[in-house]
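stuck on this one:
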Amino acid sequence: MPKTAEVQAREENQRERRLKQAAFPIHKTLDTYDFTFMPSLNRNRFLTLAKGEFAERKENVIFLGNSGTGKTHLAIGLGIAMIQNGYKTKFITASELVEELLIAKEEQKLGAFEKKWLMIIVDELGYIPFSKIGAELLFQFFSNRYERASVIITTNLEFVEWTSIFGDEKMTAALLDRLTHRSHILLLNRESYRFRQSMKQRENGEW
């Protein structure tokens, strides 16, 4: 049965509300990412992920690669696609997440904070070091989501370098075991996507 105009309007309003709540820093879609730049990535795989089945299975997505390779673009694009498919999503940088966890701990609201989102995108893990307590709270946050809810992570660090974030080798190993157990790991390690785009603009006389 075709949807009525009222139902369509209500669904569109819900999508707009979820987009606003997600707090994406910029609007990027999967359609605007140049997959020819990263041949190792399968565009159809992203379209499959965007349907949200991985979230239903409580699986994670980890984008791992050098700065400027399009990790954040793809994470936002995947998040926007999932919102279009009905999923409530939140975008936050790793440093902002740690700050919010510290505040929630101080206000004794950690439990409620950790259950707030079905899907969370944690951007730039590894760019800024954390305090010992911040690292422990982040470890706890990820661990508590294990097999309960999905997380999308972007990071510029190889897994062997994650000890520099969390400080403790055993804690880091335990976290990686949980995060990668049910995970789609996508490697992006070619020349900077932003660098290539800026050079293309230069060649076209745009700057």
Observations:
- The mean pLDDT is 88.
